[in-house]
Amino acid sequence: MRLSQEELASGQLLPETLELAANLVRVNGFVTFEEIIPRAVIDKLYDAYIDILEPYLAEHHEEVYNPKNGFNDGTNHIRLYLPFEKPFVDEQILAHPFVLSVVDQVLGDDCAIRYFATNTSLPGGRNAQPVHSDMHSMFGLRYGANLPISNLIVNVPLVDTTENNGPMEYWPGGTHLQPDYMYDRKSFPKAKLAEHMTVLKATMPAGSIMIRDDRMWHRGTPNKSDKPRPNIAVIYSAPTTNPSKGTIPIPQETFDGLSPRLQKLLRFEKIGHPALKPTHYEVKP
Ligand SMILES: O=C(O)CCC(=O)C(=O)O
């Protein structure tokens, strides 16, 4: 969606835009707001991200690179958890009023942030990722109805995402509306179905915001450019459906400097702990 000048200037969605956006998430699995975060903020984030990515890749080369099939099965994709510190900690990224109005509407205003990371398609990838949803079934193969939306992933690309630099591909419209058992690893393979289904590419300008149900099927694709294509990924969860302990260590001083709303969003996280060093290993609660 492209927002009006009035909405961009006031930082508030008009009631009809909010209704449309929330219903698009419910029905289509996602909504995108184009070019929301100012370019200067995005460029600063990109530079800071490259400053941690490059040494990280150099230091962890042996762990992340396999001579047989390349990096991460030839996808050259990396998930890197971010340290909870500036410039990554920015209210425009974590508590943007457009995002909060949509997540409050869909998840409830007691929702919480449970995840803070990046997904990057690095140059030189040969293979696309397998088609997947980010959440697995809650009840395995036993439950045959769709469950309410419990996690919304907010992606913010730090570069213009084009056909050429590894846009995420996604299957909207119904893949988030499946019975719970369809998200089990043993259910009918998504890749087989996806080949016959309509797919979109998440091409968008840097600083756009995509809000998606974490069950919507998607995959990373190879980056044919010579520059990394990072997406920030923040997950907002309905607390009733996501009682896990926190995964984001937040230094007390940093927490104290946040807005009351962002403090509330982060209330289940590890407040008073030193910031995490960047890592590609899964951060467990
Ligand atoms: O290209 C992207 O940002 C999506 C990557 C992704 O889905 C993943 O790494 O699980």
UniProtKB/TrEMBL annotation:
InterPro entries in the record: Fungal_Metabolite_Diox, Phytyl_CoA_dOase-like
What Pfam families does the annotation carry?
Answer: PhyH
Q: Where is the signal peptide?
A: none
Q: Which GO terms describe its molecular function?
A: 2-oxoglutarate-dependent dioxygenase activity
Q: Which Gene3D superfamilies match?
A: q2cbj1_9rhob like domain (2.60.120.620)
Q: What is this protein called?
A: Phytanoyl-CoA dioxygenase
